[in-house]
Design brief:
The protein is mainly β. The chain has eight helices and 27 strands. It folds into two domains: 2-129 and 421-433, Sandwich (Immunoglobulin-like), CATH 2.60.40; 136-391, Beta-galactosidase, Chain A, domain 5, CATH 2.70.98. The chain has helices spanning 2-18, 47-53, 72-76, 121-127, 177-180, 384-389, 403-418, 448-453; strands at 23-31, 38-46, 62-66, 82-84, 86-89, 99-106, 111-119, 136-140, 145-149, 154-158, 165-170, 194-196, 210-213, 216-219, 225-233, 237-249, 252-263, 268-276, 282-288, 295-297, 306-311, 330-336, 343-346, 350-356, 361-370, 422-425, 431-432.
């Protein structure tokens, strides 16, 4: 349904090109630089960059489509494209869109042409599908802070001196954060859908941030002020931001900003920190240290380094439970962004990666894989409506049920972070969406041989 709708859309756009153009298009090339497939590659484009070539851009009324063509010339001849769910986000709270985000599947070394078509809202939204919500983010007293999720996992960060990140695992790959945040809902109890599956204890948390001072972890605990905001929670990604003003650490008073970005269908999230007043401070992130769950590390030859654990570290159900559930495994991992100077450390509660900031910032990726995920998905034969709604939807990846599968995933994520997809704006100015090239010439009769060769 989605593809057919886009084929019809090309006819509408072509008609606009012949009369007064109500819709305009910008062409972008997205390339996978590696020999590994990139399913659901997250693409972010600055709207300021697009406005340089399209001052009349209307971020609130646009549609993103992709073809399998690798060049603009080939793209002009394409009769069928795929609509990509997209969203625009206001990052700084000024009610103006700053970024366009979407996901696209990329084969090894593949380049795909992306069309960003914008114009009158009444025309765009006649063409554009309704995108299912695949991420969520919120702040609630019940979960003691802010939370974010994709279909795979839900996460929360305690809005208090613990400042730890905790995990909800899911047996059914659906959005469940609002349920966990419902007053009196027992999210520690066993459930066919999902529950709180981890015990943080006194650890820093799963991919949370702290400082490394004189061989000790200092949590973001002693602060003058904490604030939070949900930047977005859409079909493509959710973004949550926490700001800590006056963090007292190592004789300094620091302003620290933590931003969590959760992409649809992703079992992990990106954590970006930005700090002022933190000169020469060494920061830390890590994974909780659990008995009989060894830490696994990458070698130091890659641009992105990683730390992982795999084993029986799922807490027993129940609000006061402390032991680990037997015969079920959970993998946790952190992958650092390229360019960080990372050291490996450990204390009584944490496996740690420590590092100074680079230009005042650092980013890492945190992920989890429970071997029970997707074991209770709803079973059904589907129907026409579901098939139409999911025609162009990028679905979650398969569950990971072994240590080797999990480590392969972690290594693959490190490779993706080391060599991100390249993005090139091809258009020098926005133009009316053209009709396919083979429809521009007058039709002519064909011989039997020509007809057979079509």
């Amino acid at each position: 349904m989605g593809n057919m709708k886009l084929f019809l859309a090309s006819l509408v756009l072509a008609g606009s090109a012949l009369a007064e153009p109500h819709l305009a298009s910008i062409k972008i090339a997205v390339t996978n630089p590696t020999d590994q497939a990139r399913p659901a590659e997250g693409i972010v484009i600055s709207l300021a960059d697009l406005r340089k070539i399209a001052p009349d851009l209307r971020p609130g009324a646009l549609i993103v489509t992709a073809s399998d063509a690798a060049t603009e010339t080939d793209d002009a001849a394409v009769l069928q494209t795929t609509e990509l769910p997209s969203q625009v986000d206001d990052l700084d709270g000024d009610n103006k869109a700053d970024e366009l985000a979407f996901q696209v599947d990329l084969k090894p070394h593949q380049t795909r042409i992306i069309s960003i078509t914008y114009g009158d809202a009444d025309r765009i939204f006649r063409l554009r599908d309704d995108y299912p919500k695949r991420t969520n983010a919120l702040f609630a007293t019940k979960i003691q802070g802010a939370g974010w999720e994709s279909e795979f996992n839900a996460w929360r960060i305690y809005f208090d001196p613990r400042n730890a990140i905790d995990l909800y695992g899911k047996r059914r790959l659906t959005l469940q954060l609002e349920r966990f945040a419902t007053p009196e809902y027992p999210y520690h109890d066993e459930s066919p859908d999902g529950r709180d599956i981890y015990e943080i204890g006194d650890a820093l948390g799963i991919g949370a941030v702290g400082a490394w001072v004189d061989g000790k972890v200092i949590k973001v605990a002693d602060v003058d002020k904490r604030s939070w905001r949900v930047i977005s929670a859409g079909p493509v990604r959710a973004i949550v931001e926490l700001v800590y003003e006056g963090w007292k650490v190592a004789g300094k008073s620091i302003t620290l900003r933590s931003r969590f970005t959760q992409w649809a269908g992703d079992r992990g999230f990106l954590h970006t920190i930005m700090a002022t007043g933190a000169d020469n401070l060494v920061f830390a992130t890590g994974l909780p240290l659990k008995q009989n769950v060894p830490a696994l590390y990458s070698d130091k030859t890659g641009a992105s380094l990683w730390l992982a654990t795999w084993g029986e570290q799922v807490v027993l159900p129940g609000a006061k439970a402390t032991g680990s559930l037997k015969d079920t495994n959970l993998g946790l991992a952190i992958v650092t962004s390229p360019g960080l100077s990372v050291d490996v450390n450990q204390d009584a509660n944490n496996h740690l990666l420590t590092f100074p900031l680079r230009a005042g910032t650092a980013t890492w990726y945190t992920a989890a894989a429970w071997d029970q995920e997707a074991t209770n998905n709803r079973v059904g034969s589907g129907n026409g409506k579901e098939m139409r709604e999911n025609a162009s939807r990028i679905m979650p990846a398969a569950p990971l049920v072994s240590q080797q599968q999990f480590l392969d995933f972690v290594k693959g994520r490190a490779a993706r972070m080391s060599a991100p997809a390249s993005i090139k704006i091809l258009s020098s100015k926005a133009g009316a969406q053209p009709a396919p090239a083979d429809t521009l010439a007058p039709s002519a009769s064909k011989t039997y041989k020509q007809a057979i060769e079509l």
